[in-house]
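Q: Got a minute? One more chain.
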Amino acid sequence: MTDAKQPQRASTRNTKYIKAPQDVLYRAFTDPAALTTWQVPGDMTGEVHSFDGRVGGSFQMSLYYPESEGSDRGKTAGREDRYTARFVELTPSSRIVEAITFDTSDPALAGEMIMEVMLEPEGEGTDVTIVFREIPPGIRAEDNELGTQLSLEKLARYVE
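A: Always. Here it is, folded:
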């Protein structure tokens, strides 16, 4: 009997200094209206379908690729990435842990990945660090890292 080798699940880490207090940033991660503004990378748009902002609660969100992109590349549908994020830990103003699952029929994109957000005071602002663990093998780590970087840039513009 041979052991079926599971594809390696990647991790990424992004940090950005943002000139805003921890509590303002924490609210931006836990407010559905804020999420649709800053958590969508680049020219994508977003929609929060449901939101239960407590430990054990979750939210469901869609990210939509712009019409201007030439091909359908969504994880859920042509131009849509829909996912559910369950709140594993909520430590006000300092730490958020979410377990994220994409709504997909593609086994390479299935499974739970973990997003850990750490908010550390630094001078007149906050170092925001986002670590993703157990990224499904169908998502390239460099794409996840770039998407996170673009979202952090939008977050900075949103709160500063």
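A: The beta strands are 10-18, 45-51, 58-64, 80-91, 95-102, 112-122, 125-135.
Q: Perfect, thanks.
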